[in-house]
Write a structure and sequence with these properties.
Undecaprenyl pyrophosphate synthetase; globular; binds magnesium ion; binds 3-methylbut-3-enyl trihydrogen diphosphate; alpha/beta; six-stranded parallel beta sheet
């Protein structure tokens, strides 16, 4: 029986046309709304970003407990350099502190840290911290935590296409093999917080057949319960990949 004609249910092949949805393997989140969270409370934006880091910590723990193979978090886009210098410096400071404080927990729990995006453009001491953290967690076999830093999907696709061309074949498979996410499972679910319904240059290629979940919850308020809600919704989706 061809996959397209397979009945819905356990004997259908996950990821194939007409297939049973199966548990999500790879979830990505556009963590948006830190500034609005702070504004609503008459607090500086930096406080919103700091509370955003607390939400990251909880969501990473939850992703591990829920058995996700991969979680990709949009932390700083290639366009976020347009923000005022003091906000960029607050964000870099939080990133520095986060890596320092959380790397032991990742290593102890077998989390593999990964960075997507052109992180070498970040301040040199952060690049060094990142590279130490990558080396320390490279053998992690529980969840892959990919953090998108100085990430822009159009730039990523252009780099991947150029690399594929240099090897002689600009095909879908060849480009895919050069993307920053090449060693990760296919993207199943893309979540964006804060009510904005746009991708903001995040995982444009990878989202081709991903399910999407948009919520008005502002990122600092996002809890493991919200992640569970999105995953429960995902489990009800029928993914057709153009088939029927
Ligand atoms: C998301 O929150 C964090 C980053 C983009 C670094 P924002 O700072 O974009 O918050 P809003 O969208 O202004 O509320
Ligand atoms: C996307 O959020 C980038 C991150 C969450 C890191 P932005 O707040 O930068 O996106 P726009 O500007 O509203 O599209
Ligand atoms: Mg925003």
């Amino acid at each position: 029986m061809s996959p397209a004609a397979a009945p819905r249910g356990d004997d259908a092949v996950a990821g194939q046309p007409g297939g049973y949805t199966g548990p999500a393997r790879h979830v990505a989140i556009i963590m948006d709304g830190n500034g609005r969270w702070a504004k609503k409370r008459f607090l500086p934006r930096a406080v919103g970003h700091k509370r955003g880091v607390d939400a990251v910590r909880e969501v990473v723990r939850a992703a591990r407990h829920m058995g996700l193979e991969a979680l990709t978090l949009y932390a700083f886009s290639s366009e976020n350099w347009k923000r005022p210098e003091d906000e960029i410096s607050d964000l870099m400071g939080l990133l520095r502190a986060f890596i320092r404080s959380d790397i032991d927990e990742f290593a102890a729990n077998d989390v593999r840290l990964k960075i997507i995006g052109d992180y070498k453009m970040l301040p040199a001491d952060i690049v060094e911290l990142i590279e130490d953290a990558l080396a320390r967690t490279a053998q992690g076999r529980s969840t892959t935590l990919a953090i998108a830093l100085n990430y822009g999907s159009q730039q990523e696709i252009a780099r991947a296409a150029a690399a594929a061309a240099a090897k002689g074949a600009v095909t879908v498979e060849a480009i895919e093999a050069e993307l920053d996410t090449a060693d990760m499972p296919p993207l199943d679910l893309l979540i964006r917080t804060s009510g904005e319904i746009r991708l903001s240059n995040f995982l444009l290629w990878q989202a081709a057949y991903a399910e999407m979940w948009f919520t008005d919850v502002l990122w600092p308020d996002f809890t493991p319960g919200h992640l569970r809600e999105a995953l429960d919704h995902y489990a009800t989706r029928e993914r057709r990949y153009g088939g029927r």
